[in-house]
């Protein structure tokens, strides 16, 4: 458990204690059910380091500020509407135009989303406008033989037209070069484990 996790747990515990004290004030012991708080226990395990709620919140804010700013990463575009998914007792029916099934090699580049035991359903994209940042696409690279399945992390235009920059979720760096729409064969629309 990291320091941030510890402080978050302590903060949640402290808020619970504060709520209990507040409820004790609203429901004094008059023979009815309610909280009666005699003494507020310490919210820190180390008795030598007793913190006030304000000090605890200040430490939590410092830890939050040290976290990477971009926690929310783009998710894939919603390719399959809820109306196209039917769940029955003995089967699931997903209505898709010309779906393709894919399985993967054990490259670890898309762990933990896609691994060698993962199956996906894919569609052929119809235009550049259908590709979004966050989508996982299968494309033919100029730098590698075979098809690579990675996530779109950037979309742009240059003198040669539309392009996408891709990266494996588990890779430290982006894939080399810009990927043109003509290189993209399919888009992952469902991951099945």
> Considering the protein shown, what is the CATH homologous superfamily of the largest domain?
Umud Fragment, subunit A
CATH top level of the largest domain is: Mainly Beta
Estimate the mean pLDDT confidence.
79
Count of discrete alpha- or pi-helical segments spanning 4 or more residues: 2
Order of helix and strand elements from N to C terminus: HHEEEEEEEE
Give me the side-by-side strand order of the main sheet: 3-4-8-5-6-7
Let me know the number of strands.
8
The CATH topology label of the largest domain is Umud Fragment, subunit A
Please identify the oligomeric state. single chain
Residue ranges: pLDDT <50 for 5 or more in a row? Answer: 10-44
| SSE-based structural type | alpha+beta
Largest sheet, in brief, is: 6 strands, antiparallel
Q: In percent terms, what proportion of residues is strand?
A: 15-25%
- Assign an overall shape: extended
N- to C-terminal separation?
A: 29 Å
Instruction: State the helical fraction.
Output: 10-25%
CATH architecture of the largest domain: Ribbon
Tally of individual domains: 2
Cα-atom Rg, whole angstroms?
Answer: 26 Å
């Amino acid at each position: 458990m990291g320091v941030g996790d510890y402080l978050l747990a302590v903060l949640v515990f402290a808020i619970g204690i504060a709520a209990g004290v507040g409820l004790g004030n609203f429901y004094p012991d008059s023979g009815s059910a309610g909280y009666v708080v005699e003494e507020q226990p310490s919210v820190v395990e180390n008795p030598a380091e007793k913190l006030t709620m304000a000090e605890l919140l200040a430490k939590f804010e410092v830890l939050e500020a040290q976290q990477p700013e971009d926690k929310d990463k783009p998710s894939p575009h919603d390719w399959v509407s809820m109306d196209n998914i039917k769940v029955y007792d003995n089967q699931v029916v997903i209505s898709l135009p010309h779906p393709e099934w894919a399985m993967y090699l054990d490259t670890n580049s898309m762990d933990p989303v896609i691994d060698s035991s993962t199956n996906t359903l894919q569609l052929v994209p119809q235009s550049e406008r259908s590709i979004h940042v966050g989508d996982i696409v299968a494309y033919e690279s100029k730098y590698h033989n075979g098809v690579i399945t990675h996530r779109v992390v950037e979309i742009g235009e240059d003198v040669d037209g539309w392009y996408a920059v891709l990266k494996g979720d588990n890779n430290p760096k982006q894939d080399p070069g810009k990927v043109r729409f003509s290189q993209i064969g399919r888009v992952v629309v469902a991951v099945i484990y």
